[in-house]
Amino acid sequence: MGQTAAWGYHIYHSLWAGLDWIFPPTCGGCGQPGTRWCADCQTRVIRPREPVCDVCGVPREIAGVCDGCKSSPPHYVSLRSWSVFDQPVRGALHRLKYRRDMSLGDALAVALNEHIRSLGWPIEIVAPVPLSRKRLSERGYNQVSMVALPLTLMCGWGYRPQALSRARETRSQVGLSREERRNNVRDAFVAQPSIVRGRVVLVVDDVTTTGATLSSCAQALIQAGARQVYAYTVARALARHGLKDV
Ligand SMILES: [Zn+2]
Ligand SMILES: [Zn+2]
């Protein structure tokens, strides 16, 4: 961590640690009082089983690139997720989404930091997947930024929440098939050339299922002049969990 980045994160972290002292936290995974992300939940996190597809990150039998990525390559170089979309992470993400638990976001970012660094990606700037204007005004904040901001500060990259915006409203991906998901988010995003031109960009989201949203974001970024796009999510919904409910 560079000196400036270290200070940026130190200030951010101290803020939430201070609030935890005033308002004792409960665990984001199991609700146990006294900690934001308890030791028990830390050990219960299910990690995607290796090997995974080099491109989309879905677990498979042998290393390499899966048939889906060969026949229609996504616009990102690589997509990886820290965990499988299941408990306790599922509960923690729900809490981030509906309870604006910033200190939980900070605690998760500490765990993600180690994993994302191990990937060795040459990231320069970070763009969270934006919410639609309607969703943002209902919720008041983008839950992805709860994790993406502290993670970016820890890694010493540039945080650019204005890099991506929604070109149009889309319906929720919940309940859609793979093909329907791809069509639903096609051309749904635009990127700011002045922010992304010539840069290596990391797009961050909370959950991915088929990677369609992230590929659509990557396409917008490349069209705006980004050099390369990588994608990262807190969790990955896998086929055995079904596409219908995420
Ligand atoms: Zn817990
Ligand atoms: Zn793949």
Q: Which stretches are poorly predicted, pLDDT < 50 over at least 5 residues?
A: 241-246
Distance between the termini: 34 Å
Bound molecules: zinc ion
The major pleated sheet works out as: 5 strands, parallel
Beta strands, count: 7
- Sheet/helix structural class: alpha/beta
Mean pLDDT: 91
**What's the domain count?**
1
Report the principal-axis shape. globular
Give, in spatial order, the strands making up the sheet with the most strands. 1-7-6-2-3
CATH topology: Rossmann fold
Range of strand content: 5-15%
Topology as a string of helices (H) and strands (E): HHHEHHEHHEEHEHEHE
**CATH-level-2 architecture:** 3-Layer(aba) Sandwich
Describe this structure in words.
Helix 1 packs across helix 7 and helix 5 packs across helix 7. This protein starts with a helix and ends in a 10-residue tail after the last strand. It has 10 helices and 7 strands. The strands form 2 sheets. It has a 5-stranded parallel sheet, sandwiched between helices. The chain has one domain: Rossmann fold, CATH 3.40.50. Helix 10 links the parallel strand 6 and strand 7. With 246 residues, the chain is of the alpha/beta class. The radius of gyration is 17 Å and the shape is globular. Helices cover 42% and strands 15% of the residues. The structure holds zinc ion (ZN) (2 copies). One zinc ion binds next to helix 2.
